[in-house]
Automatic annotation (TrEMBL):
It comes from Streptomonospora litoralis. The gene is ydfJ2. This is histidine kinase. PROSITE patterns: HAMP, HIS_KIN, SSD. Residues 783-915 form the SSD domain. It is an enzyme of class 2 (transferase). GO terms for molecular function: phosphorelay sensor kinase activity. Gene3D superfamilies: 1.10.287.130, 6.10.340.10, Histidine kinase-like ATPase, C-terminal domain, Multidrug efflux transporter AcrB transmembrane domain. It holds the Pfam family MMPL. It comes from the Bacteria. Residues 460-514, 643-668, 1306-1336 are annotated as: Disordered. Residues 254-465 form the Histidine kinase domain.
Amino acid sequence: MRPPIRIRTLRGRMVLVNTVLMALALLVVAVISTAFLRAYLLDRVDERIEVAAEFARARQNDIFSQDTAELVKQIRTPSDFVVEYTTDASGGEGSRVHRLQGTGPVLMRGIDPATAPDGVFTHRRGGEEYRVTLVHLPAYDTVALIGEPLAPVREVVQRLVAIEAAAGAAMLLASLAAGSAVIRRGLRPLDDVVDTAEAIAAGDLERRVPAPTDTDASEAGRLTLSINRMLSRLRSALHARAESEERLRRFVSDASHELRTPLTSIRGYLQMVSRGVVDVARRPDVIARSERESERMAAIVDDLLYLARLDERPAPRRDVVHLDRVVADSIADARAAQPEREWRAEIAAEGLVLGDEQELRQAVANLLANVRVHTPATSPAVAALRRVGGRVVLEIGDSGPGVAEETAAFVFERFYRGGPSSQRPGSGLGLPIVRAVMRGHGGDAVFTSAPDAGTAVRLEFPPLEDRDAAPGAGERDDDLPADGGFSSDSHLPRDLASSASDGVAANGPPGRRGSRSMAELLYRLGGFAFRRRWLVVITWLVLLVAAGGAALQFRVPLDDGFSIPGTESERATDLIDERFDGRGGTVTTVLRAPDGADIVDNEQYTDAVRDTAAELEDVSGVDRVISPLEQIGDARRQYEDGIAQSKEDAAETARERATGQLPPGTPEEVVEQRVAEAEQQARETVEQEAPGFDREQVVERIPQISDDRTTMLLNVQLTQPNDSVAPETVDAILETGDSARDAGLDVEFSGQAISMSPPALGAGESVGVIVALVVLLINFGAVVAAGLPIVLALFGVGLGMALLYAASSLLNLSSTAPIMAVMLGLAVGIDYVLFVLSRHRKQVAEGMAPDESAARSIGTAGSAVVFAGATVIIALLGLSVVQIPFLTVMGVAAMVTVALAVLLTVTMLPAALGFLGHRVTAGRVPVLGRRAEAAMTAERTMSSRWVRAVTRRPLVPIVAVLAVLVVMLLPLRDMHLGLPTDATSAPDTTQRQAYEIISEEFGPGYGARLAVVTDLTGLSDTEAAAADVADRIEEVDGVTEVFPPQMNDIGDTAIITVIPEAGPSSYATEDVLHDIRGLESEIDEEIGAQIAVAGATASAIDVSERLADALPVFASVVIGLALVLMVIVFRSIVVPVKAALGFVLSAGAALGLTVAVFQWGYGAELFGVEPAPTLLAFMPTLLIGILFGLAMDYEVFLVSRMREDYVHGGDAQHAVVSGFTQGARVVTAAAVIMVSVFGAFVFGHSEMVKPIAFALAVGVLFDAFLVRMTLVPAVMALFGRAAWWLPKWLNAVLPDVDIEGERLAAAHPLPDGGNARGTGERGSQEESESEQAAHR
C-alpha cells in the first residue's frame, strides 16, 4: 500500500496552510455575499409585487370598468410581472383564468385561493419558481395574482457565483503564487544555508551564506549573519590550527636542516678528539672551528625562534616610530662596520609609521647586513626614505652584481641561499625575517634585482591613518571584528541585525541574493515538478475536474453573431428591437415543385404546403408562419367581405328609396313586400356588376411566390432574435416538411438562425493528431516519447475548453472561438512539449541524470517556450486593438489554450518525466529508434547539407524564395472580404440549397434584403411619410423592388424592405447600401424622417469595412512588436528587420494562396472546398495575430542557436551552419506537426474555419520552410558579422533577455565534466568513494 502523500518541507506546509485559509476565507465571503444578494433581490421583488397589489386594490374600479379584451390589450405592468385574474373566487381547475401580462404556464391553476398563504410567497410551476401574491377583490368576485419569475434572480445569483468562482480562483492562484514567492523568498536563506553546508562538507571552507541586505531584519537574516560569524570563527580556528601545524612543521624541518651541518661538524671533531685521531694541543683550530659552528647553530636557533615569535604573535606594538631616525642610525652602524664602502642615507620624508621600533631596526639591519656580506665593498649602498601616494616607502639598494630572475623568486624562502650567496656566511633567514616583520606591520617587502644591475629591497608601509590595515590591529584576518563575539543566545541584537558593518563577506555565487533570471526560476520549477510529481499531477487533475464541473454548471448557449457595437446597422437593429417590441428572427422555408409544375394550382402541393405551415406553427419558439396560401385566402375573404358589404349598402339604399316612393298610408304588408323586392334587386345588381375575384392577380402580387409559380416561400417568425434561438428550435424546424417531401416538393430552409448552427468537431480534425503522432514517432523513434506531447496537448485543450465554457456567460463566447482555441492549442501544445522533450532526450542520452536533465531542459528549452508562448499570447491579445468584441473573444479563447500549453510544458512535462525516468524512450520502434538515435550524434545530416548548400551562394536562394513569395502575393489584389452567408455555406447544407433556389427563382438580390428602419417620430401623417421614403429609395440605382412599409403598433416607426439587384457578396450591393445611406440628410430635411439600414447584409458590410480599416493598425502594432522583441532577444538590427519582412511575406503569401483556392477555385476540389465570392472579413487579422507568434517561435529556436555559437567565439558563417544544424530537425518536426493539425481542419465540417485553417497551414509552411529555413540562413550568411551589428548606445539601453538559459550553466555547473548524476547515483558514488578511502 502506497503511503499517504505528505508535504515534507516547511515551505510546502506553509504554502498549503496559507492556500487553505485563503480558500476558506473566499468561500465564506462568497457564501455570505451570495446569500445577501439573493435575499436583497427577493426583497426587491416582493416590494414591487406588494406595490402592484396595493395599486390593484386601490384602482380596482377603474380596472374592471373596461371590457376584458380591452383590459388585456391595454394593461402593461413593469418588469417581467405575471398578472392573472379569475372571476371564480374559488380558483378551481375549471375556472377561467385571464392573463394580463407575462408568459409561461398559468400560475393560478396550481393555487387554491382559500388555502394560499397571505402576502408574497414562492410558487413553483412548470419547473420554474415565481414569487406571487393573491389579491382578493370581493366586490367583483375576483382573485388576482401578481407575480414575478425568479429566473432573473437566479441568473444574477448564478452570475455572481460564476464571477466569485472565477475571481476567487484567480485570487487563490495569485495568493498561492504570491504566498509561495514570499515564503520562498523568506526561506531562501535556509536554502543558502543548506547549499553552503553542502559546499563546506565537500571541502570549500571559504564558502559563506550570502549576506542579507541592509534592510533585512528578519530572523532568517539574523540567522544568516550568525552562521557566517560561526563559519568565520571556525575557518579562523581551522586556519590558525593549520598555520600552527605548518609553522611547527616548517620550524622542525628548517631547524633540522640547518642544524644538521654544524652538529655534524661538532660531532665529527669530538669523535676525532675522543678517538685520539686529533691531538687538541697540536690542532687548536679544532676547538675554534667547533666554537664557530656552535655559534652559527646558536644564531640559527635565535633567528628561528624570532621568526616563530613573529608568526605566532597576533600583532606588533602600535607605537609611533620615526623611521628616518631608524634609517640614519642603521646607516651609521653599517658605515662603522664597513668604512671602506660608500653608505648614503637619502631621507626625503619624516617617515612616521606605527609599529615596533626594535623589529623595524632589526629588519633594516638585516638588509644592510645582506649588502655588506653579498656585495663587494666597492659597490655603494643607498637607503632612500620617501613618501609615495600617502605611503612611507624605504628602499635599500646597491650596485652589486645582482641575482638572476629565477633566484630572485625564492629569496624570501627560509634558508634559501642560491647562486654565489651559498658560498658566503649566513643562515638564509635574513630576508624571510624582513618580510615577516613588514607583513606583521601591514606592509610588505618587495625584492627586485637583475644581473650586473644591482639589487633593491623596497619596504612599503601602510598609511599612518590606516589603523586597521594590519591583521589584528583592529580587524582579524578571519573577517571578524577584533572585539566581535557571540552573545549567549548566539544571535545578534535586533538593532544590529541589519547592519552591514560587521564585515562578514558573502562568497556565494553571484546573483543568489538578487533577482534570479527566468532560466533559473524555470530550472527550479522543473526540478520541483520532477520531485513533487504526484502533487503536480493531482493539482492539474483537480483543476480539470473543477473546470469541468464549472463548465456543466455555468455553460450558456454560444453567440453566433458577428455584430460590432457602434455601427449603423447595429444601431438600426437596436431601434427595431425597441420600437417593434422585441421582434424575433425569421426563417424562410423554401418549397419548390418538381419539373416546373405549378405549386399554386396543384391541390396536392397546396395541401402539402398547408401541412408544412401547420407543422411549423406547432414548433416551440415559433411565433407565427406567413404562408402565401393564407394570403390568397385572406384576399378572397376580403373580396367576399367587400361584396357582402356592397350588397348590404345597396340594399340599404334600395330600402330607403322604396320607402320614400310609397305614398303615406300604404299598408304595412305592401311596404314590406316592396322593400324586400327592392333589396333583392339591389343585391342581384351588385352581384351581377361586381368584378369576379382575380386569383391570378393576387398570386402575382404576393412576393413569396416566384414568377413561374414553381416556388413558394413560408416566412417563419420566431419568438427570439436570430442569435438567441435555441438549438432545439432549429432542429425542430429542420425536421418539418415531411408531407411536402412526400408530395414531391423540394423543402429547404434558410435564415441566420439556420446558418448560425454551431460548428462541431468531426473525424477529419483527428487526422492532424494522427499525422502529428507519426511525425513524433519518426523524430523520437519511441512510442512513449511520441505519445507524451499528444497526451499533454489533449489534456491542455480539454482543460482550456472546460474553462472557456465555464466562463461563457462572462465572455459572450462565439461558436467559432472554441474551434480556434482547439486548433491553436493542439498545435502549440504538441510543439512546445516537443522542443523541451527533444532537449531532455539528448541530455539523458549524453549521460545526464533524468532529474537534472528535466530541470535543465525546462530552464533552457523551457525558457524559449515561455518566450514563444508569451509572444503568441501578446499577439492574440493584440486582437483587442481593433476593438471588435467577437474578434477579441477569439483571441482570448485561443490565448487560454496557448497559456495552458506553456504551463503544462513547464510543470506537467517534468512531472511526467519524473514518473518515466529512463523509460521515456520505452516502446522503441526498431528502425525509427535507430535512426533517431543516430541523428542526435551525426555530423553530416540532411539539415547540415541543406544549410551548407543555401549558404554557399546565398543570393540564389534569396532570389528564389522572394520570387515564389511575390508570386503568391499576386492574388491579393482580388481579395474580397465579407461575413458568412448562405451563399458561403457548404454545398450540401440546406441553407446553401435554399439560397441557390431563391437566387434562381427570385433573383440574387432576394438573399441580400436590406431593412430600412424609418423613424417617423413627431410627424402627423406617418404612413404617408413612410410611403414617400419608400418611393425615394425605389429610385436608387441597383434596387429591384421595395416592399410596402410595415408600421409598428404605435405608428411612429416603419420598416421598408429593399431588394437589390445583386447578391449579398457583390460590390454592387455595397454601392446600393451606401447610396441609401446617402439619402439620410435629404430625407431628414425634406420629409422629417430619419432612416438607418439594418439586416444581415448591411451588418456584414459594416463589419467587413470596420475590419478592413482596423487591419493596418493591427498589422503595424504586430510588426512593430516583432521588431522590438527581436532587437531585444538577438541584439541585432539585421535579424529583426529580416524576421519582420519574412513574416510579412509569409503572411501575405498565405493570404494570396487562400484567395486563389477559396475565391478563384484553383485546387478547390483537391481540398474539398467550395469557392466563394468572399473570404472571412476577420481572417487576415486573425491570421496575422496567430502567424506572428508562430513565426517568432521558429525564429527564436533557429537564430538563438546561431547567436549562441557566434557569441561564444565562432565564425559568423560557421555559427549559421552549426546553429541551423542543431535546431533544424526539431523545427522541421514542429512545423510539420503544426501544418498537419491546421490542415486537418481544412477537411473538417466548419466552412467558416476551413479558410482560416488553410491560411494558417500554408502560412506556417511558407514561414518555416521558405523563410526561416531557407531565407534566414541565406541572409545571415550574406551579411556575415554585420548581421549581429547593434549600436553601442542601443545595446546599453536594451534589457538582457536570456531566453536560452545561457547563464544557467554558470549558476548550476555540472560536475564530472558536464554530466550530472542523479541523487541516487550521486549517493552511491559517494558511498563507494568512502569505502575506498576506508580501505586505503
